[in-house]
Each structure stands twice: as structure tokens, then as C-alpha cells.
Amino acid sequence: MTVHHSGHHQAYTDKLNAAMTALQAVDPVMAALPLTEILQKLPQLPANLQGPIRNNGGGYVNHTSFFVDWMAPNAGGNPTGDLATAIDTHFGSLATFKTQFSDAAATVFGSGWAWLVVDKTVQPPILRVTATSNQDTPLSTVGVIPILGLDVWEHAYYLKYQNKRVAYINAWWNVVNWNKVGQLYTQALQ
Ligand code: MN3
Questions:
Q1: Using CA atoms, how far apart are residues 160 and 44, in angstroms rounded to an integer?
Q2: Cα 174 to ligand 1 centroid, rounded to whole Å
Q3: pTM of this prediction?
Q4: How far apart (Å, rounded) are the C-alpha atoms in residues 38 and 50?
Q5: Ligand 1 centre from 8 Cα, in Å?
Q6: Ordered DSSP codes for 131-156
Q7: Ligand 1 centre and the CA of 92: distance in Å?
Q8: Among residues 90, 88, 86, 65, which one has the least CA distance to residue 145?
Q9: Is-contact 113 156, C-beta < 8 A?
Q10: Which sign, positive or negative, has the C-alpha torsion 33, 39, 42, 48?
Q11: Tens place of pLDDT for every residue, the chain, 190 residues?
């Protein structure tokens, strides 16, 4: 976790800051928007900055949420309240959801993420599992709000789990901070 945070996450942050400085110089109006909005307007950015902001901006937002919100010591267990009800409604059961999510994480080819998102592009909103490649983020789609994500880049697990991604995924369920995920679920619906 220390290497992941102070090494990999920091590198995305530093490179994003450099790209934002470059954007500020050519399009200060765009550069003043929240990062999520900038990621939703990638095609409007200067061509030379689209890749750096997509990769490092995505890396920044994915890791910021991932580290700060979604894991906690002595966590795990089961979701409660409205989130638990919603998982049962949209997936049938918690076990089915966990299987779908774990499968999505295990089958990302190369580097990427698995996600539980609130999809507000349909009404009423639904919960669904999805995956992204590299540092692409669900937040780049207007109306799609990730409330839980799992980093399956090898940099997330190679020190402890070597090539055993599935063992890492299975262990990760023991540190999921369901209280926070429940709060994000409630916020996403507002
Ligand atoms: Mn990572």
C-alpha cells in the first residue's frame, strides 16, 4: 500500500499536475473545470493533452477514491441498509454480486479496474458491475458514478501476491469499507 500510494499514485498526480499546467496555458476556461468534467470533455482538449489527462487524470481520480474511501482496516463483512437492499434488487443476492464483481476483476486483460457503479443514464437508476482498461474511469461518462472499485493493475498486488490476481481479489473483500460504499450510494442517488 505504501509503494502503491507514494509511488504509483503519486506519479499519476505529478503527471496530471504537469498536464493541467499545460492546459491552463492554452485553455484556462477548461482548466478551471472540475477534473471529472474535464474527463467528460476529453475530445475538446488539445490533441497533445488528451492522452496525458485521460491516463493521469483517470489514475488520479481512481486512486484518490480507491485509497481514501473504499478500504479500511478491520472492514469487510456485508453491506447494510439501502445499499444491501439495492444489491439484492439488482443482482439477486450479495453472493451473486460478489461473483460478478470478482469475475469482472479477474478477467480484465492487462491493466485496469473493476467497478460497482450507480448508472443514472437510465431511470430509475440501476446498480451494475463494469470494468475499465488502463486508468479509464467510469466518471468519464456523464451519469455513471462509481461507488466501489478494485485496482487490478499488477502494481496493486505483485509485491504480496506475485501473479496471483484471484488471491488478491479474494483477500480484498476483507477490507471493503461498506459503510463508505453505502454513503456513496446514497450520495449518488441525490
Ligand atoms: Mn494503482
A1: 41
A2: 18
A3: 0.95
A4: 10
A5: 6
A6: EEETT--GGGSTTEEEEEEEE-SGGG
A7: 30
A8: 65
A9: no
A10: positive
A11: 889 999 999 999 999 999 999 999 999 999 999 999 999 999 999 999 999 999 999 999 999 876 667 888 889 999 999 999 999 999 999 999 999 999 999 999 999 999 999 999 999 999 999 999 999 999 999 999 999 999 999 999 999 999 999 999 999 999 999 999 999 999 999 9
Residue 89 CA to ligand 1 center (angstroms) comes to 31
How far apart are the C-alpha atoms of 128 and 125, rounded to whole Å? 10
Strand order in the sheet with 112-119: 126-133, 112-119, 144-151
Distance 121 CA to ligand 1 centre (A): 27
Helix 178-189 × helix 81-91 angle, to 10°: 80
Inter-residue contact 137 to 146 (CB < 8 Å):
yes
Cell of 162: 506475485
The DSSP letter of residue 176 is B
Task: Specify whether the CB–CB gap between 70 and 62 falls below 8 A.
Answer: no
What pLDDT shows up at residue 67?
A: 66
* Ligand 1 geometric centre to CA of 84 (Å): 27
Residue 124 CA to ligand 1 center (angstroms) comes to 32
